[in-house]
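Open question from group meeting: does this chain pack into something compact, or does most of it stay loose? Before anyone orders reagents, we agreed to write out a predicted structure and look at it together. Recording both the input and the output here so the notebook holds the full record.
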Amino acid sequence: MDNYKRRDDRVSVALPVNIGIARGVTRDVSASGVFFETSATLDIGSAISFTVEFDAPSGKMELKCSGVIVRTETHEDGVGVAVKITESSMVSA
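Structure tokens returned:
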């Protein structure tokens, strides 16, 4: 897991993330992964489900995702979490 390589270009964007036990904010996203900041303590290799919220021309949308935590970074104000997305679906909020 520590040698995970990005497959897709990432875009820097701050979007709200809901992981159930906590909330967070994305730092960057791509088609195959996301990096977000949160206050939750999460373990590398663990499965995770989360929702990314954003505004679209048609209204509020949610990207519901499942994935695997491939990296974490401890910061003074929380934890950075890198997730490899394994499944996702878009729904109206």
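Observations to bring back to the group:
The beta strands are 11-12, 16-18, 23-29, 33-38, 47-56, 59-75, 78-92.
The mean pLDDT is 91.
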